[in-house]
Known about the structure:
Layout: H1 6-25, H2 33-52
Helix pairs in contact: 1-2
Amino acid sequence: MLSISSTAKAITAGVAAGATAAATAVQDGQLTTGEGVTIVLAILGAWGITWAVPNRPAATASRGVIE
C-alpha cells in the first residue's frame, strides 16, 4: 500500500493552493499586495489544515469480507 507522509501531503496541498491563487491573481497582468497576501494565506491555510487532519488508518485484510 502506498504511504505518503503528512509533510508531503501538506507541501503538495500548499503548492496547489498557492498556484491556484496565483493563477487567479495574475489574470489582469499584475500582482497587487492584497493578492500576494491572499496567495500566502492560501498556502499557509492548506499547510495547516492538511497537517492537522490525521491520515486514515490502513484497512485490514479482513475488512469487508463476509464469513
